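queue> holo job accepted (flavin-adenine dinucleotide)
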Amino acid sequence: MSSNYITDSHGIRRYLVTINVNGIDYTRVIKANVLLANFLREELDLTGTKKGCEIGDCGSCTVLLNDKPVNSCLVLALECDGMSVTTVEGLATTSSLDIIQEKFLEFGAIQCGYCSAGMIMSAKALLMKNPKPTEEEVRKGISGNLCRCTGYINIIKAILSASGQEVPN
Amino acid sequence: MHLPDFDFYAPESVAEACELMTRYQDEARVINGGTDILPRMKNQVMAPAILVSIKRLPGMKRIEYIPGKGIVIGAGVTLNEIALSEVIESKYHSICHAAAHMAANQIRNIGTLGGNIVASIPSADMPPILIALGATAKIAGPTGERVMPLEDVFTGPGKTVLAKNEILTEVFVPDGKMTGSAYHKFALRRAGALAVVGVAVAVEIEKGVIKDARVVLGAVAPVPLRAVKVDAFLKGKPATDEVFAEAGEIAYDECRPITDFRASAEYRRELVKVYTKRCLKKVVTDGHKAVVGG
Ligand SMILES: Cc1cc2nc3c(=O)[nH]c(=O)nc-3n(C[C@H](O)[C@H](O)[C@H](O)COP(=O)(O)OP(=O)(O)OC[C@H]3O[C@@H](n4cnc5c(N)ncnc54)[C@H](O)[C@@H]3O)c2cc1C
Ligand code: FES
Ligand code: FES
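queue> job finished
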């Protein structure tokens, strides 16, 4: 947590933070009120992370903070000083998508796509901890993510399939 | 959405934190995990000029069993750290169960025990089971520490006995004679929803007789409610289904629910009756591992 700050000409404090995002250290000078979701989207132009409700209900802003899923709309960026963040942009490489992303496409688990980044990050967190989850465990794993389009069934299938389990399409 | 401007402090000692809170009084607010206060600031329910983070204070992350005494849980321990704690699980599955069924994974990774207590929402999930198990709260202020029963911390919705410059540092769950405990919550969704009703029970049963009982009801009064009439009724009675059914009826009368958009007062009373009965039945057979419903 950063204690390094300068006070600007308006009397507002600006704090020096270094946050590792998708493997790269970013050092920025930010105000205390900057939320992690806004830091990612506005400071780093990583707009894959979406904001829906902004009060912790929908999960569309889910990112991994030190490998744990959190709602980035409820985390102050300066409290992430020295920590590592993984966003949806951090999953794919230039040449290939993450297996979860592949399976979301294959199973039609994406309609409007607004929930997808958060949903995929929750799925990632689940599979990192539990590589062969049951359907019930998948449902629990994504229970903090709301989807208004798909009805969830194809999302659940996609995640089960990403874990290498046989799923009827 | 952006939060209004504020200054941020992250003191490294309790003394420093209390000193900041004393200096800034109403201008300042403690922030722990932030899952309660940040939504309030976004909804413009409050606009503190200063946030004092207590994450760096020593001991806030502690979960420790002190042999022969009990479990210490630091106020900065997250809900998931409680849910997944082997130390707590080995003694009281009921506490882990309550934490695991709160909010959603993303919130449980940041929301803390301290925040769940001091926010003093009537439907908070951790207080009922902790109170049932006789937990105490340690509160630090500029002139030292005080320890009190957790149930005495709450004074109303959003209100506690903590002064502006006091900080809840830890909760202690004493080793006791209770042989079983359980927390059962009803919410409109299984994840991410506040309790419509939460019932916690802890009982000491010896040779089929109830020696002691503590029933605590959440979301049916301004503060977590100790159902003292139920407790008094149960003491000395045989642990039978008839006794538990009658205890449910007494709990029905003793709770003081309101009607809101989640449920009517009458519906809440019915839930209290049924859940009290079910929890009592279950702790007889399953002890501290009792799980009622899903
Ligand atoms: C989508 C969503 C779902 C939720 N679901 C549930 C649920 O199912 N059950 C439930 O019980 N709650 C729920 N909550 C509420 C909240 O997440 C929890 O109460 C959480 O435990 C709060 O902890 P925190 O550390 O984030 O609190 P914070 O926001 O950091 O603090 C809350 C309040 O307590 C004060 N405070 C915090 N710690 C201390 C301390 N140690 N000493 C003095 N003052 C302190 C702060 O000043 C603030 O006023 C939910 C919240 C959201 C956003
Ligand atoms: S935008 Fe963060 S949970 Fe909805
Ligand atoms: S695909 Fe539209 S919200 Fe999920």
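queue> Residues A 51-54, 56-61, 71, 73 surround FE2/S2 (inorganic) cluster (ligand 2) (CB under 6 Å).
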